[in-house]
Design brief:
Helix content is about 75%, strand content about 0%. It is an all-alpha fold. It has a single domain, classed as Orthogonal Bundle (Arc Repressor Mutant, subunit A). The protein is elongated, with a radius of gyration of 15 Å. The two termini are about 10 Å apart.
């Protein structure tokens, strides 16, 4: 699951904001923004891999 900050950072990036702008808006450092973004993207990528493996193994699951 993504944290609230990770979600906020992704939403602002979706709107085209730069990391420095997001940092100012959220009152955190630019390296923190970068870390939140990288962590969120890693989690999303990991989730995609898990879903692919589950499909390959024939595991049934419910999407939410």
């Amino acid at each position: 699951m993504l944290t609230e900050k990770e979600r906020q950072v992704l939403e602002f990036r979706k709107k085209g904001m730069k990391q420095s702008e997001i940092a100012a808006k959220l009152k955190i450092s630019q390296p923190a923004v970068s870390a939140f973004e990288n962590n969120a993207l890693r989690k999303i990528n990991d989730a995609k891999k898990i879903i692919e493996l589950a499909k390959k193994l024939g595991v049934k699951y419910e999407e939410r």
